[in-house]
Amino acid sequence: MSYPQLKLLIDGEWIAETGAGTLSVTNPADGSILAKAPIAGDAELVAAQHAAARGFETWSNTLPLERFRIITRATALLRERAPQVARILTLEQGKPLAEALREVSLSADIIDFMAEEAKRMPERNIPPRLANVLTQTVKRVPVGPVAAFTPWNFPANLPARKLGGALSAGCSVIIKPAEETPATCLEIARAFMDAGLPAGVLNVVVGDPAHISDTLIRSELIAKVSFTGSTRVGRLLGQVAQRKHSALAVGERVHRRRNFVRPLPRH
Q1: Which residues contact 23 (CB under 8 A, 6 or more apart)?
Q2: N or C: which end of the chain has fewer CB within 10 A?
Q3: Do 37 and 14 meet the contact criterion of CB atoms below 8 Å apart?
Q4: 72 CB contacts (<8 Å, ≥6 apart)?
Q5: pLDDT of residue 254
Q6: pLDDT at 122
Q7: How deeply is 65 buried, as exposed, middle or buried, from its count of CB atoms within 10 A (0-12, 13-18, 19+)?
Q8: Residue 32 φ then ψ, to 5°
Q9: How many helices (H) and strands (E) does the chain have?
């Protein structure tokens, strides 16, 4: 299998061209260009956010057992395609083929492990302190659309960890793989789509890392961020997330004041 044509995945559609241009993906062994990836510009990022929001409404209301079935169908496909995906991984990342094959297979195992938890998200009962008080129940619910960012060194393993956890919990995802190694993550996404994952639940974007991360983290539609990478970049993204959190907290306080504080009547 040769290196595939690179596309974005947004709302169940594979997008081969955008108005933002392309970036080159090179073979680290000889520096040759493997393919050109379409860059996700502002229009694509807006579309991905709204797709993830719609996908979340669908996926979070899907029965956990059905989520498990779709996820494990995807990992079965990933195992079937492991030799081809491993070759893609080797072409874009450079690790030996045997090591790449093990990484792809292990990635399917990681996703399966997390998918098992989709079947048993326990509710916790808190005993009452008084005889006439009903038992209190703590129920876990998916937090919302997730923005995930992964580096180049483990192009299958690290996306698998983020996708496995988020999808099993009932969250939708916008994932940005490293620009050096996008095809491996796209092949994992292809397995999910072929397994019947609803449109919008998983979106894959590629492009300028700073612009994409800043746009998604600041978005009010994104509820959670998952990042693996350098300490320097992690600190920068953490600062963006903190500013967003602070702004939302201030907005919520203002909203409450406007809605619950009433002026005193005049006499």
Answers
A1: 36, 37, 39, 179, 206, 207
A2: C
A3: no
A4: 112, 115
A5: 42
A6: 64
A7: exposed
A8: -75, 155
A9: 8, 10
Q: How big is the chain by its Cα radius of gyration, in Å? A: 21
Q: Is 38 helix (H, G, I), strand (E, B) or coil?
A: strand
Task: Provide the terminal-to-terminal Cα distance of the chain, rounded to the nearest Å.
Answer: 83
Q: What percent of the chain has pLDDT over 70?
A: 90
Low-confidence ranges of the chain (pLDDT < 70): 1, 122, 245-267
Q: What's the pLDDT at 83?
A: 97
pLDDT tens digits, 50-77: 999 999 999 999 999 999 999 999 999 9
Residues in the chain: 267
Give the number of other CB atoms < 10 A from CB of residue 121. 14
Gap between the Cα atoms of 154 and 31, Å rounded: 19
The pLDDT assigned to 69 comes to: 97
3, 27, 71, 163 from 74: Cα distances, Å: 21, 28, 5, 12
Q: How many CB atoms lie within 10 A of CB 182?
A: 25
